[in-house]
Amino acid sequence: MKDFSVLIGGKAGEGINRAGFIIGRILARMGYRIAMYYDYPSLIRGGHNFAIIRAIPDTAVAAHHTTVDCILALDQNTVLLHGARKTRDTVVIANSDAVKDETIGVPIQTIAREEGGLPIMANAGLIGAFCGAFGISWDHAAGVLREEMPRDVEINLAIARRGFDAVPRNATLPAGKSLEMPLFTGNEAIGLGLLQAGLDAYVAYPMTPSSGILHYLAETAPETGLKVVHPESEIAVMLMAQGFAYAGSRTAVGTSGGGFCLMTEGLSMAGMSEVPVVVVLSQRPGPSTGVPTYSAQGDLGFVLSAGQGEFPRFVCAPGTVEQAFEWSGRALNLSWKYQVPSFVLVDKALSEGIYSFDDANAGRIRKEPLPAPDPARPYRRYADAPDGISALLTVPFPGSVIKVNSYAHDEDGLTTESPETIAWLTEKRMRKLPVMVREIDRPDAVVVAGNPDAATAVLAWGATSGICSEVAAMLDLRMVQPLVLSPFPQSAFSGACAGTDRIVAVEENATGQLARLAAAHGIPVDNQILRYDGRPFSIEELAGRLAEVLS
Amino acid sequence: MKRTLITPARNTWCPGCGNFAILHTLRDVLLEREREGHSLEQTVLVSGIGCHAKIADYLDINSFYAIHGRTIPVATGIKLAHPDLSVICCAGDGDCYAEGLDHLVFAAKRNIDLTMIVHDNRVYGLTTGQYTPTSPLNFKGRSTPGGTHEKPLNPLALMLASGATMVSRAYTRQLDHLRGVLAEGMAHRGFAFIDVLQICASFFDMTGYYNEHTYLLSGNDPSDFWEAWKIAREWDYSTDAPIALGTLYRSSGEPVYDDAYHSPPQSQTERDAAVRALIDRKAGRLPPGVKDA
Ligand SMILES: Cc1ncc(C[n+]2csc(CCOP(=O)(O)OP(=O)(O)O)c2C)c(N)n1
Ligand code: SF4
To answer: What is the pLDDT of residues B68-94, one digit of tens each?
Structure first.
């Protein structure tokens, strides 16, 4: 089996995400690359959670099939709800303490109790049974379990072993050649990329699906020295970040659409004060509270124009963990170089999905040094410059008074209402734009995948670009993914679309926000495939929709 | 040459405005601190938006002229980035008792080392005379021409309840006293809250009333919370009563929020190694000597 999928399902609180991750690691250590989709409703106990892990030896993977090769059912619902994912060959291994009538049943709750484990440890039994059924050696499985279940490891291993022994071997998964690749959520990759590029502080108020960044950075802070703050609201978050930056700390904030609504006040302040800030926005379906734990791409238009007044901003939209790692770091450097807000716009699918991280091929971004002001002259925070970029000093700085201001101001940062100074300041801000365009409008701002010469292109952004790449390759189409959305990389985008006679946009929103942006830049989209139910396409679904559109 | 610490910006406060007193007193306190060895480069002023906030334009020190109600989160970021800085907030009563009240409560709760100066003129000055959270009951402002129907809040009681470790009141017509309280606030390690009764000459001139009702505290024990509470409750910002000026409460044993933020930033080499370790650990490759978390 060269392309293997396994689904594990159960109730919230049964550790499905964790169990899925461990299965992913067992496969990753065999040389597989992994994409895990994690589906859960917004509740803490009960309900139905499931994860689909797709694994292919040595090959990048981003999306899922409609069907799976194995179902691991902790509860009856898993069997009932995912019947349509079964083929003739699908192996179903069920917790026989809770599920009736399955060919392979393992009483994992009984086993967990008999081995003196907690109820949540039952899923170790299912993981063991999975390994047994697919010919994964006990030593291999136990090696990963030891690393991932260090607490009560012997009990977990005993439970897993009984599961392992309880099932007949069904097939043997061949090993790949690659060294184990680490598995990261998109949120973790974003956090790592920011750290790699010299992040000093992270400030956030919890909001799904962005909270994983906060949790990861807080948990790893003892090793990174990062200052992590969870204040009273997103309003405070956005302001606090700029206090940090004014005092020289490279700072990022993270939220989802609702929290970002509260940040727009502070975002405008960053626009006027030219204090750098990186905003990670992970989208979920809106408006308002919307659907907390599902995915969407509905906030592009909002991010492009959020805040009052006019000021330039960077917006990048990574779609893979490697892109997330690299572009989060780039966003941080760009924000400090140009003294503008930078956005990393992602979605739940990337934020909370788990993926193999191809460390060797991920761009490593380090902190870029900034130009120093002329020491012969008194420092002026907003000194005029041809490209609109004044040399940036932060407090405390010997011999300098550093004044920043949310009012329109002069070169020293003193408030002004003079028409000349207002116009000068506006032009200074806007003069950055052409320089920013030169910086980002390069071929690497737009990814081309699939068949780069195909006349039909699929246009995608964010996590959707992963599945679009795979489907485009299958159908011999071109896939175009702009990584930078503001300022718009006009020439790179035109280049990526050159020679197409048909463009089909695939987006997770109801109005085609990327299609609108492309059209505004002279590249109209011919067809749109839009989805707005919070769920990702499967490969077969998307291929079907594309075939319909193209027929 | 004597440094004035005053910028060339044109001062646009109304004649008789109490903000002049705060500006010049704060300037004097800063110069005095400089003589004592506290470098002004290590001092940052954060202001909100309102008449009070223009102090950021007028005082020639590092400043972050922020937005309405948001002095505290900005100041908190600065302080956490650089706990060695002296950070002062100059806020208005509309600014920090209305728009940004949550931040005020949280700053007190955290006991972060900031000097919080509220220019409490009990009216919105810059937006020309609406009531604020400390305007008296029945205050006739431009948004409440028939008088307000809500009692003011008592900021001193609120701050005592929220955990501020220094709670004081001063008055812009008692300059020496104001100077003493501001200096005390800057010297205090922890959240120093100072409600300054500030005369608004144009929209709420309470000079006569304050001159008649204020008295200087003496002989009180600022470490006694319940004594402070009683003094704070003497005047409810509405009904006629004696108005205490001075430090009602001061305690020093409480944890200070920014104490946990002194770690120096990692060098690029250290950071590279930290990121490397985080990546490797996820694949079960532990660098030597590092224990699995
Ligand atoms: C978000 C926001 N809302 C409203 C305003 C308009 N505004 C400017 S100053 C002010 C009130 C000022 O009153 P106060 O804070 O008491 O300061 P004072 O002018 O009395 O010193 C208001 C409402 C604003 N600048 N920002
Ligand atoms: S309106 Fe009041 S507070 Fe504002 S400057 Fe005039 S006197 Fe001062």
So the answer is: 999 999 999 999 999 999 999 999 999
> Which of 71-90 (B) contact A at CB < 8 A?
72-82, 85
- pLDDT at B293 (0 to 100): 41
Query: Minimal Cα–Cα distance from A236 to chain B, Å?
Result: 5
* Ligand 2 atom closest to residue B54's alpha carbon, by position in its atom list: 5
Q: Cα separations (Å) of A275 from A219, A307, B8?
A: 27, 15, 24
> How many structural domains are present in chain A?
3
- Per-residue pLDDT at B114 exceeds 50: yes
- Mean pLDDT of the region A310-333: 98
Ligand 1 pocket test, candidate residues B47, B68, B206, most atoms within 8 A of CB: B68
Same domain, A143 and A196: no
Mean pLDDT for chain B overall: 96
Kindly give the pairing relationship between strand B166-171 and strand B243-250.
antiparallel
* Res B2: pLDDT: 59
Domain span at A49: 4-165
Omega before A524 cis (within 30°)? no
Written as six digits, the tokens of A508 are 């997770």
Which of A121, A136, A165 is where one domain is finished? A165
Residue A260's CATH number: 3.40.50.970
pTM of the model: 0.97
Same domain flag for A232 and A137: no
pLDDT digits (tens, 9 = 90+) for B127-154: 999 999 999 999 999 999 999 999 999 9
Of A361, A392, A411, the last residue of a domain is A361
Q: Hey, what CATH class is B19-253 in? A: alpha beta
Distance of CA A161 to CAs A29, A43, A103, A168, A212, Å?
19, 32, 20, 13, 32
Q: What residues form DSSP beta bridges with B65?
A: A405, B47
Best of B71, B74, B266 to substitute, by most chain A Cβ atoms within 10 angstroms, is B74
Answer yes or no: is A129 within a domain. yes
Report if residue A26 sits inside a domain. yes
